[in-house]
Structures are given as structure tokens and as C-alpha cells.
Design goal:
two-stranded antiparallel sheet; 9 helices; mainly alpha; 2% strand; 82% helix
Length: 241
């Protein structure tokens, strides 16, 4: 009886051993639960990060789709897009000039001016249509900060708008047999002022980085303004002289 009691509950019995085994199993179980909790938190964090990455990717793809739609791209863009080299551009511009040379000498000069004035007016209207949305986003309310591209598109729109009026006015002037009252009118004078302002806006964009005007842009623009005004002053002095 005593031996059985010692075996079950004694110092050298199995109770303490079994209790130790149970305690060890309990510790192992607690460690496993803690590990599972850590893994669960890690998996949840990984899932959250993955969802954020997917959301950002979807947003980027959505923006690309919008830009592609605005640029007129389609799923056939690979076949319809135009990509030319700078040398090709040089050749194209040179050919365009060469094609006009025979007409300059073979077509009546008055008619040729009217043709070119009409073509330029049409091109200016096309530029206005193409750049209108970007220019409107740059100047529309509410008040917001401008980037370099905003100065550029507004300058382009101003040159195209006032250029269209100017050269359409010259076409009209030639069609009326060149009356002085029209070529010297305030309307054509103000169109020239508008073109000048547009050119100065474009001049502001000559020094920028990632769309932001750099401090040196203002310094560069200052001496370019000075150069422009100096040339203008010389021409004015020569005209009045």
C-alpha cells in the first residue's frame, strides 16, 4: 500500500513526473498559441500590405487608362502610334519648306499670302482645340499653384488665339485690297501684344525640373527679357529714326 502511494503521490512517484509532463505540454501549447497569434498578425499585415499594393496598382492602371483615352490611344495603339527620330523630323520640316518654294515663285504673290494666311489660321485653331483642356485646367478656379507645363500651355494657347486673329486679319486686309485703316487698327495691334505675352510665358519655362520652375529660371528669364526688350528698343529707335 505504501509503495503504491509513493508511486502515485510520493517524491519518487509518477504524479510529479506526470505533473511535469503536463506543465511542459501546457508551456508548449502556450508557445504554439503565441506563435499562431504572431503568425496571424503577420499574415493580416501582409494581407493589408498586399491589398494596398493592389489598390495602388489599380489606381495607377486607371490613371494610365484615362491618359491613354485623353491621348486618343486605343488597344491598337501599338500599330497606330507614330514614333519618329529627330533626323526624320529634320527631313520632314525641310521637305515642307521645299514644297512651298515653287509655289512662292509660280503662284501670284498676293494669292500665295492669302493661302498661307488661311493655312496658318487653320493651324492656329487646331492648336487651340488641342491645348484648350490643358490650358483651361491651368487657369480655372479655384486658385492653385502652377507648374512649368501650365505656363507653357497657356503661352501656346495665347499665341495660337491671337495668331489666328492676326493672320485672319491679314487675310481680310489683303482681300480688301490692303486698306491702311485695317492693318493699322487697334485690333491687329492688340493681337500682336497678345502674341508677345504668350512668348514671354513660354520663355518662363526654359529652366525647370520635374515641372517646377527653378530659382535660376527667374534669373535666366530676366536676362532673356532684357535681351528681348533690347532688340525691341533698337527696332523702335530705328523705326522712329
Amino acid at each position: 500500500m505504501t509503495s503504491l502511494w509513493n508511486y502515485l503521490f510520493g517524491e519518487d512517484g509518477g504524479y510529479r513526473e506526470r505533473r511535469s509532463i503536463v506543465h511542459e505540454n501546457k508551456n508548449e501549447a502556450q508557445k504554439s498559441i503565441a506563435s499562431a497569434i504572431v503568425l496571424t498578425k503577420a499574415s493580416r499585415e501582409a494581407e493589408r500590405i498586399a491589398r494596398c499594393a493592389i489598390a495602388k496598382l489599380e489606381e495607377a492602371n486607371h490613371r494610365k487608362a484615362i491618359m491613354a483615352d485623353e491621348n486618343g490611344a486605343t488597344r491598337w495603339g501599338y500599330f497606330t502610334s507614330i514614333s519618329i527620330k529627330n533626323t526624320t523630323l529634320w527631313v520632314a520640316v525641310l521637305i515642307a519648306f521645299l514644297l512651298f518654294i515653287p509655289a512662292v515663285y509660280l503662284v501670284d504673290r498676293q494669292s500665295m499670302f492669302e493661302i498661307v494666311d488661311g493655312l496658318l489660321t487653320g493651324a492656329a485653331v487646331g492648336v487651340m482645340v488641342g491645348y484648350f483642356k490643358a490650358a483651361w485646367n491651368a487657369v480655372k478656379l479655384p486658385s492653385h499653384k502652377l507648374v512649368s507645363a501650365d505656363y507653357l500651355v497657356v503661352g501656346i494657347i495665347m499665341i495660337a488665339f491671337f495668331g489666328a486673329i492676326r493672320f485672319a486679319g491679314q487675310w481680310y486686309w489683303r482681300a480688301l485690297n490692303k486698306p491702311n485703316w485695317w492693318i493699322d487698327s487697334p485690333v491687329l495691334l492688340m493681337t500682336t501684344v497678345g502674341i508677345m505675352i504668350g512668348l514671354f510665358l513660354i520663355l518662363m519655362t526654359t529652366s525647370s525640373e520635374k515641372g517646377v520652375l527653378l530659382p535660376k529660371a527667374y534669373l535666366k528669364a530676366s536676362w532673356l527679357f532684357a535681351l528681348s526688350l533690347g532688340i525691341g528698343a533698337v527696332m523702335i529707335w530705328a523705326g522712329w529714326g
